[in-house]
């Protein structure tokens, strides 16, 4: 059903390969359901079986080891009882001090001990206090040094001749013995080990059987879901919403299948509405894209975005602090006379491309082209805290790009371009000026006029970039600048301090600019002789420096004709 929508909405990537993706997704879901069923139920089976086997094993082990321990104790007690009888017989006949009779009694005890040994793993022996062997019957323990000094009584574990053994020990004081009835540990625990192995086998068989049963049980439970996946896959493949899922069981899965059938029925009814909406949306999208493509050539993209977000607000202006940049090509009329129209347009397009790129790289907006001049603003539509700095950095990039442009012009034999840039920062009115039929997104206000006049002053001071005091005071620390003058531009009553700015200076230029700033301070303090001396030193350091030459001439005039008491140092500019 989604194929027609693909034809209308080319960017609807969420339905690409939807049949393959959906089938794999539901297969994974079913696998997870089966796995979860097994993982949930299996512990319920394993845990009781495991605990039952463990408890049974422990009980059997305790019972068997208790009987085996009593059996060893019984053997040890029998030997000790027999030895007491032999000793009492010797003592009653006063023969216990005679070695021959003592040895005969020991031999009789050893013979009796041998009679109670029932397997090759058993042994009955006696150890004297000094560790010497009294007698040994059954498995040989002769010469085992581990028995030296053995004084333990009762149940104990031994390692005899490197073999782990268990034993029961009873002291026999008349002869200073400790009598041991012992057997190998492997033989002692053989029965319990067999029980553990059998329990493990039973547990493994139970788990395997449970897994097999759970697998078939999970298959049975998920059969309705698998059929639903098959129907979904067929609907996606054939676009046939009339397919329905068979209701197999009268339970939750049956309810799910019925609900799915109802849903597909409703989707089938809504299908025509979806296609119609998709077509309208695609058409509107194409129209919007065409509008953007056309107007991006004339209006900044930020303004277009703002228009589509809130068209009703586009005719509303606002007062805002922003930076205004004006740039102009010097002697453009002369350049146009030296070039053919097609080459002039080619050079201008390349020049404008470089200049606009520099502006936009620093978040500026090209407001308009005025012949060969450019007006750009920084701080509208989007405002940033460092708009004045961004404007100056854009100007620096413009001058660097101009140098590359002129190098290319020179290689092609075309005239070079020289430009002047003026930047001001102040409160202006920004918005769409005009009517609903013709709008111009621009700024108006006195700061705009001042920026334009500053660009014009670059010719008088022969410097490519002039910024106002409001821009200068917002430049970051370490920026290179020098005071040019205080001027009263045409069309404005108040004076404004102007500054030259540069991205980089040589050491000689740094020294000269510092001398110049000190000379300007002396000049405004009316110490014209000292100021004249500083400006002469600047001129000597930077031969041909137009700014210092202008100030030298003004100092000479003011020395010859001192100014009145209300003199502020401002100079009125009558030309633009």
CATH overall fold name of the largest domain: Alpha-Beta Plaits
The succession of helices and strands, N to C, reads: HHHEEEEEHHHHEHHEEHEEHEHEEHHHE
Unreliable residue stretches? 1-19
Shape designation? elongated
What count of helical segments does DSSP give? Answer: 15
Measure the end-to-end span.
69 Å
- For CATH, the homologous superfamily of the largest domain is named as Nucleotide cyclase, GGDEF domain
Specify the oligomeric state: single chain
The CATH architecture name of the largest domain reads 2-Layer Sandwich
The number of domains is 4
Structural class: alpha+beta
Kindly state the number of beta strands: 14
Helix content: 55-70%
Rg calculated over all Cα atoms: 54 Å
CATH top level of the largest domain?
A: Alpha Beta
The profile of the biggest β sheet is: 9 strands, mixed
**Mean pLDDT rating:** 81
Strand content: 15-25%
Describe the protein.
Helix 2 packs antiparallel against helix 3 and helix 2 (18-92) runs antiparallel to helix 5. The strands form two sheets. Strands 6, 7, 8, 9, 10, 11, 12, 13 and 14 form a nine-stranded mixed beta sheet that branches. A five-stranded antiparallel beta sheet has the order 2-1-5-4-3. The chain has helices at 3-8, 18-92, 99-116, 185-188, 190-238, 252-295, 301-309, 332-338, 341-361, 387-411, 446-460, 469-472, 507-524, 528-541, 546-560; strands at 122-128, 133-138, 154-160, 163-172, 177-184, 318-329, 365-370, 373-378, 419-434, 439-444, 465-468, 480-488, 496-502, 571-572. It contains 15 helices and 14 strands. The protein is of the alpha+beta class and 576 residues long. It has four domains: 3-46 and 194-269, no CATH class; 51-189, 2-Layer Sandwich (Beta-Lactamase), CATH 3.30.450; 317-502, Nucleotide cyclase, GGDEF domain (Alpha-Beta Plaits); 505-566. The two termini are 69 Å apart.
